[in-house]
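Researcher: We plan to redesign the surface later, but first we want a full-length starting point. Tokens attached.
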């Protein structure tokens, strides 16, 4: 087909360029870090949801003092574990807060 309208564009070397996108060049270290970032973002989102639910239960007053203490210790340990995992993959907590464009960020900030 010699139709110039349907001709594939050529790169500087004269090789036809594939349509539909470019190949992603990714090394294993980058892939591992990005995957860790995605997984830790989801874990942090769930951790924050659980924390809010625990705070609601405590505020309702239907938990014993021992249960309140256990919840507090558990939430502190979860937060410490998240910080350790972020350190391991050279991430900060702000790296986990995905920007959702006009919707804002995925995770609430301290001011929210």
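Model: Full-length starting sequence:
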């Amino acid at each position: 087909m010699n139709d110039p309208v349907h001709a594939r564009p050529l790169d500087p070397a004269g090789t036809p360029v594939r349509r539909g996108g470019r190949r992603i060049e990714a090394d294993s270290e980058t892939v591992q870090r990005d995957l860790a970032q995605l997984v830790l973002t989801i874990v942090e989102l769930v951790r924050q949801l659980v924390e809010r639910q625990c705070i609601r239960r405590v505020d309702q007053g239907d938990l014993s003092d021992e249960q309140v203490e256990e919840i507090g210790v558990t939430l502190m340990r979860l937060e410490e574990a998240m910080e350790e995992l972020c350190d391991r993959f050279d991430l900060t907590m702000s790296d986990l807060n995905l920007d959702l464009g006009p919707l804002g960020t995925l995770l609430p900030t301290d001011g929210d």
